[in-house]
Amino acid sequence: MAQKSDSKQVAAGGGLKGNARSLRLGKDCEYERELRRLQIELVKLQEWIRHRNLKVVVIFEGRDAAGKGSAIKRITETLNPRVCRVVALGTPTEREKTQWYFQRYVPHLPAAGELVLFDRSWYNRAGVEHVMGFCSDGEYKEFMHSCPEFERMLVRAGIILIKYWFSVSDEEQEHRFQQRMNDATKRWKLSPMDLESRSRWAEYSRAKDEMFVVTDIRQAPWYVVNAEDKKCARLNVISHLLSLIPYKDLTPKPLKLPPLDKTKYVRPPIDEQNFIPEIYRPAER
Questions:
Q1: Is-contact 40 10, C-beta < 8 A?
Q2: Per-residue pLDDT of the chain (285 residues; tens, 9 = 90+)
Q3: Is 21 part of a structural domain of the chain?
């Protein structure tokens, strides 16, 4: 299976290597330029997934404020939302709480030619639900027993399953929490659960370690992302993702724009249309 590939494998068509050598941002490479290069490769990978009818699931887990969302944003920024979509489920409904635990996630799995990114996933049960007491000990133990088999079943069904854990220190998490507290556009990211996690750092660490022991399986291993520096984490996870799925460059040949149809046509008066107020106007040239 593709997800077993070594991280140093060269991606066909992209020529990317996982960690052939370390590059220093600002010295050996510039962040925006490198991100642009990798995003172009992601577009090529997207076309390969669509062309070969691959089914790809990428799971993003980790500490609160570890940078999962910003990494997902950079991955999806240039991709076709009809091929690549993000799944970020909220709190389960009362009905969903009575379902088979994995049932609410199954409808979001990819069909042929799709890439699905889970911003948190079924691993909520091994993390926040277990630590915060939102599930019983029996439900937690059943999850730990069933999860590896569930994932092996997905792989046998032809799904390429990739799992990333974003690792960040308590000092860096504290710094990012403070940033969110002081930024009106990011304050919504802080929930009561996030604040409670501060007093349960050790419990979350233990839960993560126990989860890895059981679910770091050969068919779907965990890949840990050093997320102390957000920009490096984004570049590293994109580069690694590209290295796991060998792909070819299917970039189509440049298109030739046909001439504009200048057939004479009298349009309705423009003042009959409802334009929005132009509060902002272009600068004078």
A1: no
A2: 444 333 333 333 443 444 457 888 887 899 999 999 999 999 999 999 999 999 999 999 998 889 999 999 999 999 999 999 999 999 999 999 999 999 999 999 999 999 999 999 999 999 999 999 999 999 999 999 999 999 999 999 999 999 999 999 988 888 888 888 888 888 887 777 777 777 898 999 999 999 999 999 999 999 999 999 999 999 999 999 999 999 999 988 888 989 888 788 888 898 899 999 999 999 887
A3: yes
33: left (phi over 0), alpha (psi -120 to 50) or beta: alpha
Distances (CA, A) of 251 to 34, 40, 43, 92, 247: 19, 10, 9, 41, 12
Q: Could you tell me if residue 280 is inside a domain?
A: no
Helix (H) or strand (E) holding 49: helix 31-51
User: Based on the structure, what is the number of domains in the chain?
Assistant: 1
Domain that holds residue 6: 2-272
284 found inside a domain = no
Give the type of residue at 100: W
Domain annotation covers residue 24? yes
Q: Which residue shows structure tokens 């915060």?
A: 132
The SS3 assignment for 61 reads strand
Identify the three-state secondary structure at position 83: coil
Whats the size of the chain, residue-wise? 285
What CATH number does residue 241 fall under? 3.40.50.300
Whether the pTM exceeds 0.85: the reply is yes
Query: CA 159 to CA 118: how far, in whole Å?
Result: 14
